[in-house]
Amino acid sequence: MTGKYIINKVLSNNVVISEKEDKLYVLLGKGIGFGRKKGDIIDDEKLIEKKFAAIEGEDREDYRRILKDIDKDIIAVSEEIIALAINRFGERLNSHIHVALADHLNFSINRLKEGIDIVNPFLFEIKAMYPDEYSIAQSAVELINKRLNIKLPESEIGFIALHIHSARVNQRVTDSLKYTELVKEVIDFIQKETGVSLNQKSFDYARLISHLKYSLYRIESGKTLKNILLSSVKRRLRDEYKLATKVCCYISEKLHKEVSEDEIGYIALHLNRLKNNA
Q1: Fewer CB near the terminus (10 Å): N or C of the chain?
Q2: Domains of the chain, first to last
Q3: CA-to-CA distance for 33 and 7, rounded, in angstroms?
C-alpha cells in the first residue's frame, strides 16, 4: 500500500480525505469521490487536481474530531474554499485553517438555521484591511450558498476573510480580530475628537485603515518606518499632528508600546487628507 492514498472519508464527488504513510491528506479533483467508499485506493495521480496534508501535529486529532462531528458537506465546501485561497495566492496556508474554518462554518450555519442573526461590527474595517482575503471570502460565500442551498449574510464574508488572513500570516484568528477591533476603536476615537463622521466608503477612509493596520504591526514589533517629511508635517500641519499625537497615545495605551514620532507624522498626513476631502 506504500505510495497509495487510502480513502478515509468521502466528503463529496470532488473531495475526499485519505491516508498515506500515516498522514492525512485532503484530495480534490473532479469526480474523485464518485462511487468510492472508505478503504478504496487512489493510485492515479491524474485524478488529483489539488492535494495537501490536511493536518499535522497537535491539530491532527482535532481534524479527526470534525470529520466525526461536522456534516461532511460543510467540511467539503470548507476544503474547496481553502483550495480556492491557495490557488489565488499561490502560497501555503497554516494547516490549522482546516479545523478552524470548518468549525466556524458549522457554528454559523447552525445559528442561521436557528434564526439567530450573525452580526459583524468590523465588516468595513476587514474589507479595507484585507481586500484580497475579502474578495476570496465573497467567492467562498457564493460557493457555500450554492453547495448547501442556504443564504449566508454579508457579515460572514468578513469572518471567512479573517480566517484566510490568519492562515496566511500564521496568526490566530483572535489576534487578527484584535488588530481589526483596535483599528475600529482608533477610527471612532478620531471621529469623536474631530466631531466629524468619516465616510466608510471613501478611498481616503480605506487608505487610513490600511495605514493604521501596518502602523499597528510596526508598533507592536518595535519596527520604525523613517518619515522624511516629519519636520515639514510638524511645522505645516500643526493641528493634524496634535490630533495624531493623541491618536498614538491611545494606541500606545492599548498595545503597551511606545509610538515613534515618524508614525505620528504619517498618521497626521492621513488626517490632513481626510480633512481636505471631507
Answers
A1: N
A2: 1-53 (2.30.24.10), 55-171 (1.10.1790.10), 182-276 (1.10.1790.10)
A3: 9
